Amino acid sequence: MRNNQGHQWTDEENDYLRREYKLTKKSVKEIALHLGLTAATVHIQLGRMGLHKRTLRNRWTPEQDEQLRKLNEEYSVTTMARKLHRSPGSITNRIKRLKISRRSRSGWFTKREVCEILGMDHHWVQARIDSGELIASYHNGHRPTKIGSSMWHISEHDLKHFICRFPEDLNGRNVDMVMIVDILAGVEYG
């Protein structure tokens, strides 16, 4: 195949592309091979002609939205994705679109949420967990087998205790002050 940058499409090629792509459902590679063009050139022309196949999205139903709300109270995004047969990105986007708080679980936060609240990176928070200064437990009570896939549960009580014991460790520029005040004041999230 040659570089087809600037290829001038003929009416016959456009008719072939339209017919084969829409009606016979031939792949872009098959069409490109037949026309002696690169797949990229065919993709560009499909876009110009408005013929790109739309991916059939798995639309969210009201029942799935309700199931997502319930799962959100207890599970991580990865677990919810597995249970709902969707990608983690799809779960995250739907949670944002529905304006569901990820902090609405039954009295605990994930390590990532604690990082955001305290304004620290995950290494800093993990060091506090490892030292015992911040008490945390594993998701489902057992240590994950994959590196980097740890899912930590940090209770509101334990986070409040940590903040009260080590306030000097917090960096004032990055902390989520509203959340810290709510935690210290006893506003429950879950």
Share of helical residues: 40-55%
Tally the beta strands: 3
| Subunit arrangement of the protein | single chain
Q: Which stretches are low in confidence, meaning pLDDT under 50 for 5 or more residues running?
A: none
Number of domains: 3
| Sheet with the most strands: spatial strand order | 1-3-2
Overall shape: it is elongated
Strand content: under 5%
How many DSSP helices?
10
Overall radius of gyration? 26 Å
The helix/strand order is HHHHHHEHHEEHH
- Structural class call reads mainly alpha
Give average pLDDT, whole number: 81
Q: Let me know the largest β-sheet.
A: 3 strands, antiparallel
Gap between N and C termini? 60 Å
Blueprint of the fold:
Blueprint: H1 11-23, H2 28-35, H3 39-49, H4 62-72, H5 77-84, H6 88-97, E1 108-109, H7 111-118, H8 122-131, E2 137-138, E3 152-155, H9 156-165, H10 177-185
Antiparallel strand pairs: 1-3, 2-3
Helix pairs in contact: 2-3, 5-6, 7-8
The gist of it:
The chain is mainly alpha-helical. Helices cover 52% and strands 4% of the residues.
Would you write up a description of this structure?
With 190 residues, this protein is mostly helical. The chain has 3 domains: 11-49; 62-97; 108-185. The chain has helices at residues 11-23, 28-35, 39-49, 62-72, 77-84, 88-97, 111-118, 122-131, 156-165, 177-185, and strands at residues 108-109, 137-138, 152-155. A 3-stranded antiparallel β-sheet has the order 1-3-2. The longest helix has 13 residues, at 11-23. It starts with 10 loop residues before the first helix and ends in a 5-residue tail after the last helix.
